[in-house]
Amino acid sequence: MVLRGAATPPSPAPAAGGVAGWRSRPGRGQTCPMLHPRLAAVALLLTACGAAASATPTPRCHPAVHFPSPSASAAPVSATADQAQVDPGATVTLTETITGPATVQVDCSAPLQVLVTDSTALSVYSGYSAEAAADACGTLILAAGARQSYQVTWPVDPSLPGGTYTATLVLGDAPQLTLSLAVGALPGAC
Prior knowledge:
By secondary structure, the protein is mainly β. The chain contains one helix and 13 strands; from the N terminus they run ββαβββββββββββ. It folds into two domains: 40 residues, no CATH class; 113 residues, Immunoglobulin-like (Sandwich), CATH 2.60.40.1930.
């Protein structure tokens, strides 16, 4: 290897005692013994590896975020989920409640429906609750303070990628409600 701008040392010559080394030049100091070529290569390699290791940035991670329980409301209905963050393969239970005074038309065969979409509005799941009892469907008239609740589950597909999803709940002619849920660990979480 040739270093530009650096003086090339003179060739080794035997020093006193028969040991090869660099000849002393006037005003340049003492004689230095030569490094063995293998030792020089190892030193160079270790220096290069140390420089590469210190140049690699340490990946950042953030503590896991704890989400509040999702909820939404629009008179006369309100909705909640039993958990805000769920692992793929687990199940989320969504509950919608009608609070009187109210009159709502509710389907008897599938009273509460859910449509789950990803962050790009692509549908990943749709389902509905079990058939409702005769007194909890049709034209439902609730007096002030009376309540009627319905539940539907979302079995989260094990292959679903982590991220934020939106569950839209439909209960008869009541206003639609949406809940945001997190699936798996969010990117960058420790």
